[in-house]
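This part of the workshop introduces the protein records we will be handling. To make this concrete, we reproduce a full record directly below.
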Amino acid sequence: MRIKVVVLLATLLGLTAFSRVARAQAQNTSPGKVYIIIWFDTEDYILPQSDDAAKRLAAFLTQQGIKATFKVVGEKGRVLERRGRRDVIGALAQHEIGYHSNTHSQHPTPAEYEAPLDWTDGVEEFTRRERTGFDDVRRIFGQMPTCYGQPGSSWAPESFAALRKWGIKVYLDEGTQVGLNGKPFWYGGLLNIFNTAEGSKLRPGDNEGWDGLADARARFQEFYLRMTSRPEGGVISLYFHPCEFIHKEFWDGVNFAHGANPPPAEWQLPPMKSPEESEKAFKYFEDLVTYMKSFPRVEFITASQALRLFRDTAQRHTFSTEELASIARQVDPDVSFQVHDDYNLAASEVFSLLNRYVAGVVNKSPQAFLLDGTPYGPATSFEDAIAGRSDSAQPSGQNAAALEVPWSQFARTVLDVEDFLEKNEQIPSAVWLGSKAVPPESYLVALAQVTTRLVVRAEPPENVSLAPAHLAAAKYVADDSPQLWGWVIFPPGFRAPKMMRLAKLQAWTLKPARLVGSR
């Protein structure tokens, strides 16, 4: 009797939701779509039954005409190859393949080995440890991985620079290290579908487990109504692990929890669900997917399709002098990203465009202002960059003293900065005006004021003032805390303050992602 009541209530809720959606869409000439990206962290290379779980999930979605994104660990791919599981490899290859680190939970994980490193060493170390797995996944599945996501919460900002060099353009995962109001964003030059809220609420909950399908349906109805009521729609990032459909405890928690790192000969198999429990889990997933598919404005997408939907319209755009003047007017001491009618700009992109414009004026060689890439944030903080030069450098941040220099000095600095940008593709940690240094934020504000004057008056100022400024966009990056590193695999007390300071410096690259065609 209770089951019949639950089903009846769910049906009534569904009819009510569809009615509300229809009314909302009737009042909206351009209702949005709900884009659902389903992805799997395909990682368990210890329990053989997880191979069949991944195959079943892939085959079901293929039968439904839905392409998912399977993020595969390098060692998982190699194990499938050694086991001769070409059937599993073939089933997953019908979908899109992403990359999910080389060995996942074996220590040290990415955040562990990156935590003590500086920017340059960190980028190189990520490549040294992770590129082998990336190449193996590409070879085994016969396709270029389209995205990356960290193992557990083992996130690191240096990974972005390495991934861009490999040709990966999407960061697909969940975590709280960086985020922009729960929506897709650009960071480190990659499209990030990260730190969202809706997908985790559709997963089996801690309390109801795989029995909570009715609640998941009701929550999806709420998300659908809210997202379709606005022209830009919304994105739901929904993830699972193939292994969680067949085991009772994660494979890596059994073996690598709290910093443990036993050799392969001592690895233990995790306890498995009963056949009935496993079937219940698969049914939850299959019923949820078919339910979401029944909604008229739902579209399932992969990582590469998300990249096309949220194409960065600022890249390869040639900016006019009028556009540069408008960009310069938006710069203020709270340095952050900019949102314009047809494109969004990260602070580092604003810095690059305005510096190139002024450099062209100084060189008397006007040029096309094409944006081709996003410069990284500084490799070190201003304080670290000028350590030992306190006699000649200005202090950083809100308390920095104002500085005034003649145009001749500012012009030479502009050319020096342009050279630095071209050679390093990165914002300088300190900008030197002769023997004095200022933070790049202060320099950007002065650069914007100079740009405005040059556009309006067609002549440079006699003197240039540089005042205190700070990177306001850094507020979207989390401070180091125990909560960031709650993954059971980390050793007790793990923290990464240096790494998170680097992450905040990379907020120079942060900006909202926009659905192409929307405003």
Q: What stands out?
A: Confidence is low (pLDDT under 50) at residues 1-15, 390-399. The longest strand covers residues 34-42.
